[in-house]
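Researcher: I'd like a structural prediction for the single chain below. Treat it as a standalone chain; there are no partners to consider.
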Amino acid sequence: MNNSIRTNTGVSCAVVVMSCAALLHGAEARAQTAATGAAYPTKTVRIIVATAAGGGTDFIARLLAQKLTETLGQQVIVENRAGGGSTLGIEAGIRAAPDGHTFNLVTPSYSINPSLYNIKFDPVNEFTPVILVARGPLVAVVHPSVPAKTLRDLIALAKSRPDQIVYGSAGQGTIVHLANALFLHRAGIQMVHVPYKGGAPALTDLMAGQISLVFATPQTGLPQVKAGRIRALAVTTGKRIAAEPGIPTIAEAGVPGYDVSNWHALIGPRGLPRAVVERMNGEITRIIRSKEMEDRLRGDGVSPAGGTPEALHDQILKEITLWRGVVKAADIKIQ
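Model: Treating it as a single chain, here is the predicted structure.
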């Protein structure tokens, strides 16, 4: 028995059914292609930076945006949204549609702010980690008049002169402040904190002898060390830096287990599709592994990082707990 019935046009229903099936299969294939991120992105991608233009985070974001524009086939722009200790810009990114067209480039302030500000989002559950882009140390530097040639000397000096040594920071609640506060807590010493409106004025006063200690970024501190204006005692990361291998880590120099980095990471809103996460992670991994990008990042005092979204998630959660303890122990409050 022939199950095909011919129509007036001479086309069998079987052929029609086959054509419909093919159309359905094509639609499913296109939907699957879109779901896997092959059609992504479909419009301009924003990277929100929660600080003013011109800083280190803005510099890295613009490097990424330039390279991602070339590889993604859509324009990638940087949007600066400063204010509220960086909470306003982060909230704007967190609240964006989870379609892969809005991201935040965040720093350790993302992990610090929940302990200092009344933030309006859940920093643990309302974000999607993408990739750790870069990380770098801070450098503990002192004025040459400070009678301490090593970090151990400084710790001994501080114990003999409690609350007499003054250290400066880039501002209340910044990673520079918290890294120093953690050092004091772990070393069991006390110093007087003077917050500045940025790292540059703190370093200026250090060179003038107005304060004794600053945890500076390598790109601002090391040139002054080489010029003999200040003295480097240690770096905050768990490993020495390639640029100055003679400078020990804080862990080596008297505070075992100390390891703090100044990092930059890309995150998105909660619910970001896995395919988008994998696409962005892969593209950025290739970008930061290039010789050109590595050289430019090192010029800004950081090194390429990379890694999985899961590793970034674990790091952020670990640091939220770490800084909460430091803020409580040092009774740090934003005024």
